[in-house]
Amino acid sequence: FGISEALEALGIKETNEGTLTGCDSFSSSGSVLESVSPVDGKLIGRVKTTTNEDYEKVMQAATSAFKTWRMVPAPQRGEMVRQFGDKLREKKEALGKLVSYEMGKSYQEGLGEVQEMIDICDFAVGLSRQLHGLTMHSERPGHRMYEQYHPLGVVGIISAFNFPVAVWSWNTALAWVCGDVCVWKPSEKTPLCGIACQNIIAKVLKENNLPEGISCLINGDYKVGEFMTKDTRIPLISATGSTRMGKIVAQEVAGRLGKSLLELGGNNAIIVTPDADIKMTVIGAVFGAVGTAGQRCTSTRRLIIHDSIYDKVKNAVVDAYRQLRIGNPLDENNHVGPLIDTDAVKMYQQALEKVVEEGGKIIVEGGVLSGEGYESGCYVKPAIAEGKPEFKIVQHETFAPILYLLKYSGGVENAIDIQNGVAQGLSSAIMTNNLREAERFLSHAGSDCGIANVNIGTSGAEIGGAFGGEKETGGGRESGSDAWKVYMRRQTNTINYTTELPLAQGIKFDL
Ligand code: UN1
Questions:
Q1: ipTM confidence
Q2: Which of 125, 182, 481, 510 could join 78 via S-S bond, C-beta 3.0 to 4.6 A?
Q3: Which residues form the Aldehyde dehydrogenase domain (predicted)?
């Protein structure tokens, strides 16, 4: 089962013009985007980008589909999502392979990403019968008060290359059961993953006689994203990516008083206390730092280790790095695949130079790999550097497999200060068997992140919880728990079933 079989199973075909299309309803006529695999440097396909005119057609399809979709009862919308989840089960290997080949993460992680899609579909199906509001007691006699949630409209989704399919599904599966329709701009670095997903959902919509505008795809770089951020027909923009991008999107959307759901950078740390289980720490830290070649927003970037066990932990982690095999991510013997492109390689190299400039010490040498199997120029060695919490580079999120070791002394509160002492606030973890330390870390005086784990690494969250973070991570929450509420508008209703019209607050107004 190779790449060409996977592309075929996903309905990705070359047209006469040598470009790839994938969607029945939306044709793009803009400049051509090339998808080059970081795995072997080969061109996988070309995709035409969305022009302003194309975008207008997409928005017409979306706004008219919304009128149909919002009238479909929520449990029936859930039934459509259930069928989508079934199709994903059928296509899991093909889509997992494409994710791995187009983005560069290991095949296992590619499959994991599709599994997250399946999981969120299951979650959304259940949710489709649980879009609950509350009832309240009115202060006026013979009055009833309650609140209900209504669909919002067109939801714009801007996603990043590192989770080219799962992040879309977290948004879209919830938005669909909520009665919204979605317009998705996948990363210009992974456009084929977008087309593959669109093909799968388009089939489900067709089989159910539903308009394809319920799920729309647009392609291109940030300029295409701007069509959506500026568009007053889109009440909610969900954007995943860098903090730099998020600040631009947030301001643009806020300027028209739209809502944005932001999922931005992380600078995630694991605190390792004297009571930590070292074996578990090593697995959690190494997977967190090198999984997806350090390109998860939840990747472990900092290890904050107590000085009494510093050398022990350092040696154990360094030893584990010696076992790492770097190479083609489709070969399941390898742990680490390539970075997304050569620009990412440059940023990795610059970060390693900076940590040395600032006085840090490299203890596991990095470097770019060359030669057979590494022709794409995107394969780098996971590196470890010792540094200080306040180093500029340690404060910065570099999307690459670089782990910084930081030392703390005294009580766990000192480690928590270091952990919180960055601009980002996505994921955090503590390794300890000491109940007091763990509870302190989870308390209001503890981690300031959206995710705080005990005896688990920073990455690999389950879909059932709300996913997102504080501070420069943007404050948004996607996926499980009550994250669905952001995809709906809340309405408070008060009904008077008497023949009197008493005013609230006891105000007298006699005519
Ligand atoms: C991301 O990197 O944008 O928690 C999402 C995790 C994954 C999702 C990461 N479930 O690592």
A1: 0.97
A2: 125
A3: 31-492
